[in-house]
Specification:
Elements: H1 2-11, H2 14-28, H3 34-57, H4 60-65, H5 70-90, H6 92-99, H7 101-111, H8 118-126, H9 131-157, H10 166-196, H11 198-222, H12 225-228, H13 231-258, H14 263-273, H15 278-288, H16 291-325
Helix pairs in contact: 2-11, 3-10, 3-11, 5-7, 5-9, 5-13, 5-14, 6-7, 6-13, 7-16, 8-9, 8-14, 8-16, 9-14, 11-15, 11-16, 13-14, 13-16, 15-16
């Protein structure tokens, strides 16, 4: 038991443990009927506020300042928004055989999401990579993803998602793009407050995601999600996420070498180009997909998110040791 506890403490961060606890709570005490309707409206408000905060936090100057290293940023954006969707489509026979069509849509949804910001920068820093470039690239991915991801959903998932429509595009605009733009406009006024309360903003960020996950998985519970997700299927999903992540890490690692980038830049490409954002993905899934599908679509992203943190943490630690030994 001691070894298991140490493994959990060393490899699962508090946010991931909170996510697991939220899913369990939604399975045991789901919100339903009138309560679910109220919670759904509240979740839309939370999504808008979440992206408003993103608009306030992300400085456009950090993106434009990185344009002097435009080749690196183009490679990372290409990995995020081109390489990943191609991998998802090429792996369709294998992934559908492993997890079925609905969860495969969740795998495809992972492929069209932007990169993470905080963890990409943190792992790049730990591995002694180009941190300044990581900040620019991760921020650019997050900003551009607000527009690119919905377009890729329509292109890659198409009508197979069963929920992408003109109305979905309109909802995405008002719940994501408009609040984000408002945050950018009000950034000069609110940026000082945000910079003074970074921990509070981070807390709001994560709490918002937990609330959205709870509402989504509550619907999944009342609609019989857990009755369809057996242990073998969950293990198959973990294998599918591992396959996608492994190929992404392999491709981004080899791409940096083939294109002649130095070690610091290769590390940046590896971590920024192979990771996907849970914070962005959960709200988008709840807007794009019908409520009956959203929790199933989110499930692969949650598994992939934890897997990328655990694997990339080990890679970053090894890279840091190799640097120190040189």
């Amino acid at each position: 038991m001691g070894k298991i506890r140490n493994f959990i403490l060393n490899n699962l961060d508090r946010f991931t443990l909170a996510l697991i606890g939220t899913v369990i709570l939604a399975a045991v005490l789901p919100v339903h009927d009138r309560g679910y309707e109220i919670a759904s409206i509240a979740s839309k408000v939370v999504v808008a506020f979440l992206f408003f905060l993103h608009g306030v936090k992300l400085s456009p100057q950090s993106l434009w300042a990185g344009l002097t290293h435009w080749k690196l940023h183009l490679v990372i954006l290409g990995c995020t928004f081109v390489m990943f969707p191609i991998l998802g489509l090429l792996l369709k026979p294998v992934l559908t055989a492993l997890v079925g069509q609905t969860l495969y849509l969740g795998m495809l949804f992972i492929c069209v999401l932007p990169s993470t910001v905080q963890s990409s920068i943190a792992f790049t820093s730990l591995a002694r990579g180009n941190v300044a470039a990581a900040i620019c690239a991760a921020s650019a991915s997050s900003i551009l993803g607000v527009v690119i991801t919905p377009l890729l959903v329509g292109l890659v998932l198409g009508t197979a998602s069963g929920g992408f429509s003109t109305q979905a595009v309109i909802d995405l605009f008002w719940q994501l793009v408009a609040p984000f733009a408002a945050g950018q406009v009000l950034r000069p006024c609110l940026a000082p407050f945000v910079s003074r309360h970074k921990s509070l903003i981070g807390y709001v960020d994560r709490t918002s995601v937990l609330f959205i996950v709870y509402v989504s998985f509550s619907h999944g519970t009342t609609s019989g999600l857990w009755g369809t997700l057996s242990l073998p299927l969950f293990l198959a999903l973990a294998a599918a996420c591992g396959l996608l992540l492994g190929l992404a890490l392999l491709c981004t690692g080899q791409l940096g070498k083939r294109l002649g980038f130095d070690r610091a830049d290769r590390i940046t490409i590896l971590f920024c180009g192979s990771k996907k954002s849970l914070v962005t993905g959960v709200p988008m899934a709840n807007i794009i997909f019908p409520a009956a599908m959203a929790s199933t679509i989110i499930l692969p992203l949650m598994v992939f998110h934890q897997m990328q943190l655990m694997v990339c943490a080990q890679i970053a630690r090894k890279a840091a040791k190799d640097t120190n030994s040189d």
